[in-house]
Amino acid sequence: MKYGLKDMNLIFFSDIDGTLINNNSFCYGKNIETIKELLQANHYVIFNSSKTFAEIDYILKSENLSIPFICETGGAVYCPRGFFGESEERRGDYDVIFESAKISDFSKKIEPILLSKFKDEMLFFNHMSLKMRARFSGLSGKDLERASLRDFSILFKWHASNEKLNNLRDTLEDFNLTIIKGGRFFHICSNFNKYSAMKFILTKISHNSPEQIYRTVGIGDSSNDIEMLNQTDYKCVVQSVNNTSLIAGLTSKNFILSTTQAPEGWQECVDNIFDQTRGLHG
Asked: What pairs with residue 214 in β-bridges?
């Protein structure tokens, strides 16, 4: 097969917006077909995205995919029922591997404090009109509705200096919360990120297949992918306007940078990985 390797399997952790799909057209290109080919060749593909549970669930069902996923930039980890054996906790058609503190646990407490301190600097996504949400997100209709169903993070736009942003970080630390910068919005969440969630998947795979030899691949385009890429064996950056801060945050300069944007850039990264591994592992 095109993506078969004799002695090793790859575990792909992939961002979605600006990486798998184009940030403006939301086009997948041929990437869904490539994912299915990777799965048929016994590799793992795991979405690791800032998208909500509802958004990723919709994608998987629409494209007839059955894979684990990480949503809301590490806020929760799910897998198809029985994917890693029996699980007591479920959400819809998925087993729950991990869920962080939910918005409902902290939003009512912190939003009034933040609005009193930073009312001229920040605008919460859930306080925006539908028209404004659509403008900032590029989404509309059911797509916008699914994107608004956030369980583990609060989105906001920031209109001030980095110094004031650091003041906001300090305020949030008192509540054991942090800020993650995404491609379109900032996120307020518990102390998690894409790598901390990724470890739950890797632990499951190691436990289920202790004899399996695998390498990890991270594919992303913006700063909220830094932790994920820094901890993967192969690092791939899909060309986008958000690359600067991501590349600056990588601890190794040994990474693949696509020459094209998503969706073609994602395919380019995958093909480059196999060009690198095929010589050593057949």
From this structure: 9
| DSSP SS3 for 28 | coil
Joined tokens for residue 263: 């969706």
Residue-wise pLDDT for 174-221, tens only, equals: 999 999 988 889 999 998 999 999 999 999 999 988 888 999 999 999
In the sheet with 256-257, reading across from the earlier edge strand, the strands are 90-91, 94-99, 76-80, 69-71, 44-48, 9-14, 214-220, 234-237, 256-257
Q: What is the mean pLDDT of the chain?
A: 94
Cα 211 to chain center, whole Å? 28
Sheet holding 186-190, edge to edge: 122-124, 153-158, 186-190, 177-181
Task: Give the span between the Cα atoms of 146 and 282, in whole angstroms.
Answer: 42
SS (H, E, C) 70-131: EEHHHCEEEEECCECECCCCEECCEEEEEECCCHHHHHHHHHHHHHHHHCCCEEEHHHCCHH
Residue type, 111: E
Q: Which residue, chain included where needed, has tokens 């491609």?
A: 183
> What is the DSSP track for 149-213?
--SSEEEEEE-S-HHHHHHHHHHHHTTTEEEEE-SS-EEEEES--HHHHHHHHHHHHHHH-TT--
SS3 5: coil
Q: Give the three-state DSSP class for 141.
A: helix
Give residue-wise pLDDT tens across range 2-41. Answer: 899 988 999 999 999 999 999 989 999 999 999 999 999 9
Two tokens, residue 50: 């800032």
